[in-house]
Amino acid sequence: MGLTLLKVGAFDMPSYLEEELKKRGELFVDSKLDEAQRAEVRAKTDFVIASGISKFAPSDYETTPNLKGIVCFSVGYDQIDVNAAINRNIFFTHTPDVLNDDVANTAMMLLLDCTRLAKFAQEHIENKLWVAKKPFPLTTSIGHKKMGIAGLGRIGKEIASRALAFKMEIGYYGRHEQKDVPYRYFATLKDMAAWSDVLMLAMPATADNRHCVNKEILEALGKDGYLINIARGSIVNTEDLVEAIRNHTIAGAGLDVYETEPCAPDGLMGLPNVALQPHAASGTHETRKAMADLVLQNLDAIIAGQKVITPVPGTRTI
Question: pTM of the entire structure?
Answer without folding.
Answer: 0.94
